[in-house]
């Protein structure tokens, strides 16, 4: 499988399309000009939208009457749990259904599968058909996350960056500076670890599949990766260094039951005041103070640098796309244009959903839903981030299990190097099977 290139590929496509956009009069002369036309361009058109149950969907549902009044489109808006959404979409796509017309998708988990089966409508021409949509406002890493083989297959709605959370009060008390490198982080974790008094130096995900996303930034920052072109790269010295660092931090300085931890358990331990350092997604910040930890005790920092510098992931967590079999693609795009337009992204960002529009991270209203100290961390993480936090393969779940298994074996005392060699063979077999 070939990776989508870095953003330069996306940018070159966009530049070409923007040049041609001036000659375009919009889809059927209506899709993108709905804001200033007296008539409603899609009167009596009905579309179905499958959305995940999350803050973005809540905002869109609340404002849906405005969209319907403005466009004439009637929307069958269905909000589903993540699992329900994935299962229902897989069934609908497999049988070639025209419904739903538009739907939310987790790009890094499902996009390669959908692209491989031709289930998504490429959106490049739609995205540049109206300059007021301001497609160039989306961050490069967010767009790269939704681009496969040079094709824009979805539009970003929510983003995540891996950052470092820490107990500001405890570091100040000990006179320890915020770690800037992974070596400094490990030294600080070791110094602060005090399990006899209920304080662990470090916490992160330990569940086999879930941990891969957080492991990724350790691997990237040491110069490694899960894949190199079409080859598994789990046994390279750089990748091994990142994996071994993660195993040491969580195994030596984390809670004894870390193998059962995904993000809710890790965040809860930190929020209870039982861990000094915690690394996970930037979007988790709002859960920490809700669990009781005083806001002034929480510090936010860039992910520390390894041998290759700082390379945290900066990805699209949720995106929205159009069913390739939809008979109402223009109306579906009108919905996407509205849902991912600046106004709706702003509304979602104001309640703490990290959006993908760069301008809103420098807008007073756009940053109002985030702690002051977190905003520069997010802004600095976006341009240096990697656009994926797991291998870009079709069978993502299987790949995550293979990679996570290395860490699990390390946490139970087995040799990480031997585990990585075995896992590398398994991952290569998976890659080859997809060809």
From TrEMBL:
UniProt superkingdom: Bacteria
Stored InterPro entries: Bact_solute-bd_prot1 (IPR050490), SBP (IPR006059)
Keywords, comma-separated and alphabetical: Signal
Signal peptide: 1-20
Gene3D superfamilies xrefs: Periplasmic binding protein-like II
SUPFAM superfamilies hit by this protein: Periplasmic binding protein-like II
Full protein name: Sugar ABC transporter substrate-binding protein
Lineage: Bacteria, Bacillati, Bacillota, Bacilli, Bacillales
């Amino acid at each position: 499988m070939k990776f989508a290139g870095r953003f330069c590929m996306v940018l070159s496509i966009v530049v070409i399309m923007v040049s041609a956009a001036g000659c375009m009069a919009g889809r059927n002369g209506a899709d993108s000009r709905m804001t200033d036309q007296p008539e409603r361009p899609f009167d009596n058109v009905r579309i179905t939208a499958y959305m995940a149950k999350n803050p973005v969907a809540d905002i869109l549902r609340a404002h849906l009457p405005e969209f319907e009044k403005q466009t004439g489109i009637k929307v069958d808006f269905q909000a589903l749990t993540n699992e329900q959404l994935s299962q229902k979409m897989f069934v609908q796509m497999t049988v070639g259904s025209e419904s739903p017309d538009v739907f939310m998708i987790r790009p890094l988990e499902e996009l390669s599968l959908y692209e491989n089966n031709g289930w998504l409508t490429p959106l490049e021409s739609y995205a540049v058909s109206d300059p007021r949509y301001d497609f160039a406002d989306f961050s490069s890493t967010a767009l790269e996350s939704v681009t496969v083989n040079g094709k824009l297959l979805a539009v970003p709605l929510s983003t995540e960056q891996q950052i470092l959370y820490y107990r500001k009060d405890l570091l100040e008390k000990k006179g320890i500076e915020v770690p800037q490198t992974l070596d400094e982080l490990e030294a600080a974790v070791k110094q602060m670890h005090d399990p006899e008094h209920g304080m662990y130096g470090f916490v992160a995900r330990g569940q086999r599949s879930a941990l891969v996303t957080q492991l990724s930034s350790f691997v990237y920052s040491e110069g490694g990766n899960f894949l190199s072109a079409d080859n598994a790269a789990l046994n390279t010295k750089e990748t091994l260094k990142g994996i071994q660092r993660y195993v040491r931090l969580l195994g030596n300085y984390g809670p004894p039951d870390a193998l059962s931890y995904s993000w809710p358990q890790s965040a809860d331990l930190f929020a209870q005041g039982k861990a000094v350092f915690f690394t996970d997604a930037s979007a988790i910040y709002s859960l920490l103070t809700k669990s009781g930890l005083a806001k002034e005790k929480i510090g936010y920092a860039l992910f520390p640098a390894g041998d290759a510098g700082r390379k945290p992931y900066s990805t699209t967590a949720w995106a929205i796309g159009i069913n390739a079999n939809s008979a109402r693609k223009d109306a579906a795009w009108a919905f996407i244009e509205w849902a991912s337009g600046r106004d709706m992204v702003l509304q979602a960002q104001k309640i703490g959903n990290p959006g993908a529009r760069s301008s809103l991270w420098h807008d007073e209203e756009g940053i109002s839903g985030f702690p002051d100290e977190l905003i520069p961390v997010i802004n600095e993480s976006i341009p240096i981030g990697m656009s994926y936090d797991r291998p870009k393969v079709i069978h993502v779940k299987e790949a995550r299990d293979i990679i996570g298994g290395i860490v699990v074996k390390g946490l139970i005392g087995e040799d990480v190097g031997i585990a990585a060699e075995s896992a590398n063979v398994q991952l290569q077999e998976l890659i080859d099977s997809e060809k």
